[in-house]
């Protein structure tokens, strides 16, 4: 009840108050049009596996490093891959996002 009382008195919305507790910086979902989804997923997986990242294929492709992770999963209705990436800080997340999107684009050619 004390937390709710404090929240009622706060000038900021809950999302602003909670932002200081966020563990990772997130990309949000980013869609890429691809013709050959399995080939693109294989290329991205091979690239990160060769660098020692953890690879999981349960729901598309999830790759995890020491302070970051991302998931690429195919759409069930469109020729799209959906990327969600998180990093320890905005710079790390941005670099990871850009690298994965670059690999997706390169593998789609």
Topology diagram in text:
Elements: H1 2-9, H2 14-19, E1 25-26, E2 30-33, H3 37-49, E3 54-56, E4 61-64, E5 68-74, E6 80-87, H4 90-108
Antiparallel strand pairs: 1-6, 2-6, 3-4, 4-5, 5-6
Helix pairs in contact: 3-4
Can you say what the CATH homologous superfamily is?
A: Alpha-D-phosphohexomutase, C-terminal domain
CATH level-3 fold name: TATA-Binding Protein
Give the number of helices. 4
What is the mean predicted local confidence, pLDDT? 91
Biggest sheet: strands, sense, closure? Answer: 6 strands, antiparallel
> How many structural domains can be distinguished in the coordinates?
1
Low-confidence stretches: none
Oligomeric state, counting identical vs distinct chains: single chain
Percent of residues in beta strands: 25-35%
Radius of gyration: 17 Å
Number of strands: 6
If classified by CATH, what would the architecture be? 2-Layer Sandwich
Report, as a whole number of angstroms, the end-to-end distance: 57 Å
The CATH class turns out to be Alpha Beta
Topology pattern, helix = H, strand = E: HHEEHEEEEH
Helix content: 40-55%
Main structural class: alpha+beta
What's the shape?
Answer: elongated
